[in-house]
Amino acid sequence: MSALAELDTAPQTIEPTVNYLVNNGTEVFTYTGGPGSLDVRTGGAQNPQKVVMQNGRPHVNEFNLDVDGFRFVRHDTKVQNFLDETEIKRVYYPEMEALIKAESGAKRVVVFDHTLRTADDAFREQHKIREVVRRAHNDYTEWSGPQRVRDILPGEADELLKRRFAIIQVWRPIRYPVETHPLAIADAKIASLEAAERWNQ
Fold this sequence. Notes:
Blueprint: H1 2-9, E1 13-14, E2 17-21, E3 29-32, E4 40-43, E5 46-50, E6 53-54, H2 65-68, H3 85-104, H4 121-127, H5 144-152, H6 157-160, H7 188-199
Antiparallel strand pairs: 1-6, 2-5, 3-4
């Protein structure tokens, strides 16, 4: 009932300010320290823009991973403590392997990384986890996607890269429903065009 009530009361669209990067010749980079490090540095001039965003929850069954680039999926986990690295790898990694196989049709899934994020400064300092990302970004490029395959599976990469592969990220709230800094996903059908337009402004 609560989920239905949320759909009834949530606005169909919102207009937040999104931090894009402007192409002014400044070096663009993101540096993140190793596991347990809170050292995150970024470079590049920001270009804040008001953007209309649509609520995707009323349309959860309409999105297609191959077409839109994302899906909303209900998933119940057996993980008790997401701050326990050993439990995540023992319980959550196999769960995500099974989930991604079911949703994508992949013959093989290799889980290679996970990141915890919070906007709560005290909680982040206490548990040494990362802060939320406050700008629009794409985690992989045409170069870095294949390179990640080479990094993770160096002995198989040449053969694997002759066939189709995908890097699929799974996101979920781990303590409470998300009320600030929500995740927004760009539709793959229009994201490339919009990104090119904004980059050239």
